[in-house]
Amino acid sequence: MAKTTKAPKEERLEDILFNCRNNLRGRAPMQDKRDLLLTLVFLKFVGDRFNAQQQAIVDEYTQKGMPDDFINMRLGNQHEYRKAGVFFLTDECRWDKLINTAPTGMALAFDNAIKLLEQNEQKLKNALPQQIFTKTALEPKDLKAVIDEINKIDPSKFTERDLIGRVYEYFLQAFSINADKEEGEFYTPQSIVELIAALIEPFDGTIYDPCCGSGGMFVQCAKIIEAHGGNTQTINVYGQESEPSTFRLAKMNLAVRGISYHLGDKAASSFTNDQHPTEKMDYIMANPPFNLKKYWDESLIDDPRWKGYGNPPESNANYAWILHMLHKLNVTKGVAGFLLANGALDDSDTKDIREKLIRNDKVEAIIVLPRNMFYSTDISVTLWILNNNKKGGRKGDRFLRNRENEVLFVDLRTWNQNIYEKKYVKFTPEQIQDVCNIYFGWQTLQTEDKPAKYAKDELYYSAGIKELEEKGFSLVPSRFIKFIDRDTEIDYNEALTSAGVKVKELLKAQNDNRSKLIEAFKAIGYDAE
Q1: Cα–Cα distance measured from residue 408 to residue 368, given in angstroms and rounded to the nearest whole number
Q2: Rounded distance, CA 284 to CA 386, Å?
Q3: 363 - beta bridge partners?
Q4: Which residues have C-beta within 8 Å of that of residue 375, sequence separation ≥ 6?
Q5: What sign results for the dihedral spanned by CA atoms 94, 95, 97, 103?
Q6: With contact defined as beta carbons under 8 Å apart, do 155 and 95 qualify?
Q7: What is the rounded distance in angstroms from the CA atom of residue 132 to the CA atom of residue 33?
Q8: For labelling, which of 53, 71, 389, 501 has a CA lying 20 to 30 Å from the CA of 413?
C-alpha cells in the first residue's frame, strides 16, 4: 500500500518573524537587532518591487512586438522604474544577488548596498542605518540564517496592505524598544485605517498625520485611493514622527512604495517642534499614543494652537492632539478622523475644552470601537471625526444636508465576531460598509424624510446641542444611545416557580441516587447507613 506523504505545514508570518528573532537571541543589542531586521525587510521589498517592474517592462514591450535588444535597453533605463515609483537597483543592491553572496562576505555586501542606495536615491537620505551589518558583528552562519528567514516574507503570500508596518510592530514588541504605552508607537490595524478612510474619503488634496509612526496610515490610504480609481500622485502626504528610528522607517516605508511625502527635516515632536507650521490640511488621519504623558514644556503655554480653547492638560496629551489637529485643518473644509482612548470622552479636567469644541460645532461623529482590535493593547478606543464644514453641500455624488449643532454617536463594541489570528478583532468589508451607511445616511437625510430621531437602539443616535448640554457636554455614546434592559423583560414569578421545580427535581434525584448506593453496599455485605 502506497505511503501518503503529509503536506508540510504552511508557515505563518509570525512563525517566520519568531525564527528571525530566535536566530539573533543573545547575539546583539536589542535596537541593533531590530534595525538589522527591518533593514533586511526593506531591502527584500525593494528587490521584490524592482523584479516585478522588470517583468512589467518585459510584458509591456513584448506585447507591443518590440525586439529583445530594445527590451533589454528599456530594462536599463532608470525612468522605466521611477515612473512607477520603483527604485532603480544596480546589481550590488539587488536582493536576489545579495542573498547569494558567500556568508563570510554578507555583512559587508549588505552595508555597501545601503550606502549605494542612499547615494543614488535622495528620498532615502537619513533613512537607512549605516554599517548596521558589520556593527552587529554576527557570525556569518547566524546572519545567513536570518536572511534565509526574511527571504520567506513574500508579499504575494502575505497580502496585508502594510506588511512592513505589521513586521515593524512585531519587532517593536519583541525587542521591547519604547514599548511603554507613553512612549511606544502603535501600529494601526488595516481594518481601522480602512474604516477611517472610508468615512472621511481622503481621495485628493493634502493628508496629514502628526504622529505617523512607520507611515502605515499613508500606505493603506494610498491603497484605498487606488482601489477607488484615484491617483496617488494627486495627493500630498505630510507627516511627523518624534522617534528617530521610527522616522527612518517611515521614510523607508513610503519610499519603497513610491509615495511622495513630506516628513520634515528630522524626527521631532509635533508639539514642541512642528515641522509644518504654516500648512493647512484637507484631511487628517491619526492614531496618537494613548494618554501620552511627558509631552509638555513651558514653550507650549498659550501656544497659538490652543487659542480660543485654553491650554490642554499638561498631564495628558489627548486634548493637545485634538487642538493641534484642529489647528492644522483647512478652515473651510478640513476633516479629521483619529483615535483616542475612551477616557477623552468625559475627562473632568477637559470639560471646558470639550464644551467649546461642541459649541464651535467641530465634532461631527464619535464612534466607539470593540476591544482587542490592536496588537499592542486590548482596550476599546474611540474614533473621533472633526469637520470644519457641517453646513452641507455637494460631495462627490452625494448632497450633504446641514448638520450644524448635531453629533452622531455610534457604539460598535458588540461588533467583535470576526476574530483574526485567534485573538484580534477586525472589521469585515461588509461591517465597514454598514458603518458608512449609518454615517452617510445621517449626513444626507433630507428635511422632508428626516424622522423625529435618527437612532437605532444599541447602535447609533444623533444628538442635538440641547441634549449635549443636558449631559454636561459628555461625548460618551452610551449616554445617548438607548440600551435595552433585558432584565425588565423577565417574568420573575414564572422564573422563580421554574427554578423551584428544578431544585425539587434535583433533590429527588439526589435522594434516589443515595438510596441506590446504600442498596449496592448492602449487597456486598457492608452496612452504609
Answers
A1: 11
A2: 9
A3: 386
A4: 169, 170, 173, 186, 187, 189, 424
A5: positive
A6: no
A7: 9
A8: 389
Residue that the C-alpha cell 518591487 belongs to? 49
**Distance in angstroms (rounded) separating the CA atoms of residues 139 and 107:** 10
Q: How many CA atoms lie within 13 A of 419 on its CB side?
A: 4
Cell readout for 210 is 502628526
285: three-class secondary structure by DSSP: strand
Q: What's the first-to-final CA gap in the chain, in angstroms? A: 63
Task: Encode pLDDT of 464-516 as tens digits.
Answer: 999 999 999 999 999 999 998 655 445 556 655 666 666 677 777 777 777 77
Give 3-state DSSP helix, strand, coil % of the chain, rounded to 5.
45, 10, 40
C-alpha cell at 50: 524592482
Report pTM: 0.78
Determine which helix (DSSP H) or strand (DSSP E) holds 320, and give its type and residue range: helix 318-328
User: C-alpha grid cell for residue 384?
Assistant: 473621533
pLDDT at 178 over 80: no
Virtual torsion, Cα 208, 211, 215, 217, nearest 10 deg: -60
Three-state DSSP at 358 gives helix
Give the single-character DSSP code of 345.
G
CA distance 134 to 111: 7
DSSP three-state, residue 288: coil
The overall longest dimension of the chain from CA atoms, in Å, is 104
List, as one string, the DSSP characters of 227-238. Answer: HTT--GGGEEEE
